[in-house]
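Design a sequence for this backbone.
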């Protein structure tokens, strides 16, 4: 999507279509609507500069509007060079918002955009994958003292932050929004589960029923993908390095194999491990003609794309949008989706708005916690409190019209006591 906006030049021609997409997303984000109303009344972020490095989607725009209602000025850069949607131009036209994002940005442009967001000297940062927090520490250390805290959206970003904290370099508190139970369930499992397959289907229009689908990684995201692929009628093979997760997959009825064993069987491969070199030339060499390769992890390191390029004698780019065909010496064709980048956001639209409603609610509530905690939270990685999870889940249930039971005083007393036994 050819969006250019913000300090790199805006394309106002895309603003109207972008605004319509944002309106559509907003309809299924009622929880954030409630948070926006409460932010507009209490202005918890009044006068603060927020630098955000997030996927520039309609759902992110709805979050930006909430932060704005809370009194923040928001400076947004993209968290993936290929995921920016047409909404960037609409966002850039809103007062109090600057956007630096372009779909297809080269690495240098991608980082220039992050620097442009940081030029705001933020008091608060929102990150998705850790590139903004990393750049802040490595290249803009003079800004660190002004940062009250950050919110990180992904498993990959949180893993990077934990390594920074362990090395003693993380200079401010960051809430690991992704650790929240609501997020693990909704965002990783149901969000990635649906949107990864959505991206693959948009890019290929392949029939999943009867196909062998190999899912690498059985964390919450891989679990969601495997479940959804099975729901489509695929025969699902799971690969794992973690014995507990592998056992979980076996017990859920999936066939578990090492990637070397799965590679000759698979017709669709989906990586969701958060690690690198999951599919390498050793595996590519034995794959079936027509095998489809997709990555649902945050970074484009899970499929060895350079290795694939070296093996190929011909590359037919964009045989369909987001699908490149690699022809090997023996004539086999392997189809790489989204250049090995996160398929749900590059070939699709990312998680549905209803999922991002809860994800971004946790993020917005975490931002308030970071700016209002007395004493302030110390530097390091902080979990989302169980009450925030319960609040987000309760609001979503209420918006869905789903009622649940309340503990009776007797039940509460029983659960609080250690005296009751057989
Ligand atoms: N991450 C996954 N899906 C997303 C979406 N729709 N918007 C922003 N970030 C996302």
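Sequence:
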């Amino acid at each position: 999507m050819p969006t250019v906006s913000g300090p790199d030049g805006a394309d106002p021609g895309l603003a109207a279509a972008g605004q319509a997409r944002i309106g559509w997303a907003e309809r299924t984000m009622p929880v954030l609507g409630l948070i926006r109303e409460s932010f507009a009344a209490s202005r918890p972020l009044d006068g603060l500069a927020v630098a955000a490095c997030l996927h520039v989607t309609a759902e992110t725009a709805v979050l930006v509007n909430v932060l704005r209602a809370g009194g923040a000025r928001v400076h947004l850069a993209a968290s993936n060079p290929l995921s920016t949607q047409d909404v960037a131009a609409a966002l850039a036209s809103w007062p109090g918002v600057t956007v630096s994002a372009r779909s297809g940005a080269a690495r240098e442009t991608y980082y220039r955009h992050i620097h442009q967001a940081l030029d705001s000297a933020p008091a608060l940062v929102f990150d998705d994958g850790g590139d903004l927090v990393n750049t802040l520490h490595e290249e803009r250390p003079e800004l660190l003292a002004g940062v009250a805290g950050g919110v990180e959206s992904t498993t990959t970003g949180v893993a990077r932050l934990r390594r920074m904290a362990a090395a003693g370099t993380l200079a401010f508190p960051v809430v690991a929004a992704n650790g929240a139970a609501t997020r693990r369930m909704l965002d990783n499992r149901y969000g990635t589960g649906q949107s990864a397959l959505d991206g693959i289907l948009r890019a290929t229009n392949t029939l999943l029923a009867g196909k062998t689908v190999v899912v690498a990684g059985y964390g919450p995201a891989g679990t969601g993908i495997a479940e959804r692929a099975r729901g489509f009628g695929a025969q699902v093979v799971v690969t794992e390095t973690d014995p507990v997760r592998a056992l979980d997959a076996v017990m859920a009825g999936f066939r578990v194999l090492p990637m070397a064993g799965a590679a000759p069987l698979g017709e669709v491969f989906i990586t969701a491990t958060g690690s690198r070199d999951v599919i390498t030339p050793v595996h590519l060499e034995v794959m079936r003609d027509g095998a489809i390769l997709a990555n649902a992890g945050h970074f484009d390191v899970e499929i060895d794309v350079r290795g694939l390029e070296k093996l190929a004698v011909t590359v037919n780019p964009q045989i369909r949008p987001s699908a490149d065909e690699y022809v090997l010496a023996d004539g086999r064709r392997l189809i790489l989706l989204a250049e090995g980048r996160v398929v749900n956001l590059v070939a699709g639209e990312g998680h549905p708005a209803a999922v991002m409603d809860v994800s971004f609610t946790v993020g917005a509530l975490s931002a308030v916690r970071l700016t209002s905690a007395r004493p302030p939270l110390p530097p390091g990685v902080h979990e989302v409190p169980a009450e925030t999870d319960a609040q987000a889940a309760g609001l979503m249930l209420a918006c869905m019209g789903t009622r649940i039971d309340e503990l009776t005083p007797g039940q509460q007393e029983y659960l609080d006591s250690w005296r009751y036994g057989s």
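The first helix runs from residue 15 to 27.
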